[in-house]
Design brief:
By secondary structure, this protein is mainly alpha-helical. 54% of the residues lie in helices and 12% in strands. It has 27 helices and 13 strands. A three-stranded mixed beta sheet has the order 2-1-5. The chain has a three-stranded mixed beta sheet with strand order 7-6-8. A hairpin with a 2-residue loop joins β3 and β4. α16 crosses α17.
């Protein structure tokens, strides 16, 4: 009996070890090592964000192939890439030693490695962005005895590893393995997923793809007046549907305000009425016709809804009298009951809008990726056939992103001399225009302080002072009303051409001219909502690689190129003309040549 118990115990012990809650990752790196930079920025950090800190216990060790000796009681160092690298290693060692929040230190390391780890200004900005005290960090570096001891400890850790011939060295669960090292450098996310038995949701992507290879149903649950729903439908769903719609089975499900009760008009009559109109149009017309109508309807305003919605029906080729008859005769009540039933019978409770469900299965990973880049998700998850996504009209879609500041003279000059004067000639050839008022600003978010009863708030610092921060915020609020490229570029030009673009009255006058909702604009500008929108613009700015060094920065299809940037500042029209493919170019392109750039 004793031997049987022993065998049974060993069996369960082995079984238990395969269920690993998290994996410890030790990254031995150097701050100025190109390979360290590439690994952290391209392999580690994206995987860390995707998989999450719940599953990855990270230990950064900045030292690498440095050497050390003691002089007058203090450690001295030489580093593989010179004294500047020792400088960066010391700062990183202090940041890692002083802060137990690994999410904060990971953000700091990623930010620093993406900039210049040997620059005090860059280190300070990264510490603020990661919510790490710059004063404490800087004082630690200046205390040579303390900072050198921290770096020495990292040296001890590095020397204890079996093999650090190549930097970065990646160690899993305190054991170096050559195969793990190779996989980490090439596909770190797969290494982590394999180590965790594909437990994280993101790791199930391949299985999801296989299940969806022949199933192309896309269900969108949305709110007719929800700002996130408006943003997604007008900027993500509809542009993609125009190109790939014939390959998709699209289901649009507008959300009734109060589930379980079809008499919902007490709470918000306009939203209730809009839901009915959407439901009637979707039920009466083809997917193609109703999708075009919904895209237009999402840009209507509360105050002028009836007039705008009639105009949308005319533009989409729908008969308004038929749609209104659906409302007046009470046909819609059956439709609302169907909507309620549909929403209540999704495989997981819908808690936010829009919610995107592919092939009738909710998956958080797909939801996040689809909201961020619907076109990419459709190609990756639903179609699973690259030839569809390589079609000329898809891959040659042109997106322009302009990163600018409200009080930047160069931004004013570019918008006023390069962009706006030729906008009417180019607007139909630029599939998506994104305006990002932030530039070289920084911001910090302070959580609600329960002890002193202080509300949560943002603190912004801008290149041209606090007035610019206000101007950036006002423009972020105006752009959040999602009026589309035909309105947004003229609107921003209207603001920027004034002597004081950061004045709310200037923004208000231009907003009135282009029929924005002024009450919503003012509420946004006067509240934390505006700060949140500006912070999102900041995150968008920080995502650009490499980090912006000049304002304005112009990116095409989410990619920055130094030569294209210089050419755009000289002749934006010529650059756009050079990127228009498989279309008859506008006459303004006749004779246009790209400027020659001397460096």
């Amino acid at each position: 009996m004793l031997s049987e118990k022993v065998v049974l115990f060993v069996f369960f012990g082995v079984f238990h070890t395969t269920e690993q809650a998290s994996v410890k990752i030790s990254v031995f790196y150097e701050t100025l090592c190109p390979d360290s930079r590439d690994f952290i920025l391209e392999q580690f950090y994206p995987s860390y964000k995707n998989i999450g800190k719940k599953f990855i216990d990270i230990d950064f060790v900045p030292y690498g192939h440095a050497t050390e000796w003691k002089e007058n009681g203090t450690w001295k160092f030489t580093c593989q890439h010179g004294p500047e690298e020792c400088f960066g290693n010391l700062y990183h060692s202090c940041a890692l030693a002083l802060n137990s929040d690994k999410d904060a230190t990971t953000n700091f390391v990623n930010c620093s490695m993406g900039g210049d780890p040997s620059s005090v200004k860059s280190l300070e900005e990264c510490s603020k962005n990661a919510d790490i005290s710059w004063e404490d960090l800087n004082n630690c570096y200046k205390d040579t005895e303390k900072s050198s001891e921290y770096l020495h400890e990292n040296g001890e850790k590095t020397r204890a590893v079996e093999n650090t011939k190549f930097i970065p060295t990646i160690v899993l669960n305190d054991k170096f393995d050559e195969n793990n090292q190779k996989m980490a450098l090439n596909d770190f996310e797969k290494l982590i997923c394999d180590s965790l038995n594909n437990e994280p949701e993101i790791c199930q992507k391949q299985q999801i793809q296989a299940e969806m290879a022949h199933e192309m149903t896309v269900s969108l649950f949305y709110k007719p007046f929800g700002s996130d729903s408006i943003e997604f439908i007008t900027k993500q769903l509809f542009p993609t549907y125009k190109i790939l719609g014939n390959l998709l089975k699209l289901e649009l499900v507008p959300y009734p305000k109060i589930l379980g009760n079809v008499k919902m008009n007490e709470t918000n009559p306009i939203e209730y009425y809009a839901t009915i109109i959407h439901a009637c149009a979707i039920n009466m017309y083809s997917t193609e016709e109703s999708t075009e109508f919904i895209n237009c309807a999402m840009t209507t305003k509360d105050s002028n809804f009836k007039e705008d919605i009639i105009e949308c029906s005319d533009e989409s080729g729908l008969n308004w009298n038929d749609i209104e008859r659906c409302y007046k005769t009470g046909q819609y009540q059956k439709l609302l009951k169907q909507l309620i039933y549909r929403i209540e019978h999704v495989d997981r409770k819908i808690e936010s809008f829009p919610t995107i469900i592919l092939s009738n299965k909710f998956n958080k990973t797909i939801q996040v990726e689809a909201k961020s880049n619907f076109k990419s998700s459709i190609c990756e998850f639903v179609l699973n056939e690259p030839e569809y996504c390589n079609r000329d009209e898809f891959t040659n879609a042109l997106k322009v992103t302009i990163y600018y500041e409200s009080l930047c003279p160069d931004s004013v000059r570019f918008i006023g001399r390069q962009l706006y004067p030729y906008w009417n000639d180019l607007v139909d050839y630029i599939d998506e225009m994104e305006l990002v008022p932030y530039g070289k600003a920084t911001h910090i978010f302070y959580q609600h302080n329960v002890t002193f009863n202080l509300p949560a708030y943002y603190e912004f610092s801008c290149q041209h002072g606090q007035e610019e921060c206000k101007g950036n915020k006002y423009q972020a609020c105006a752009l959040a009303q999602n009026k589309g490229k035909y309105v947004e570029v003229p609107l921003i030009f209207c603001i920027m051409r004034n002597r004081n673009p950061s004045s709310f009255n200037v923004v208000k006058n231009c907003a009135e001219r282009y029929r924005l909702d002024i009450s919503k604009l003012k509420a946004c500008c006067d509240s934390i909502e505006g700060d949140q929108l500006l912070a999102i613009k900041g995150e968008k700015t920080w995502e650009l690689e490499p980090n912006i060094y000049f304002v304005p920065t112009i990116a095409f299809n989410e990619k920055f190129d130094r030569t294209t940037q210089s050419q755009s500042l000289q002749d934006f029209v010529a650059v756009v003309c050079s990127k228009i493919q498989n279309k008859t170019k506008p006459t303004i392109c006749d004779g246009k040549q790209l400027p020659l750039i001397d460096y």
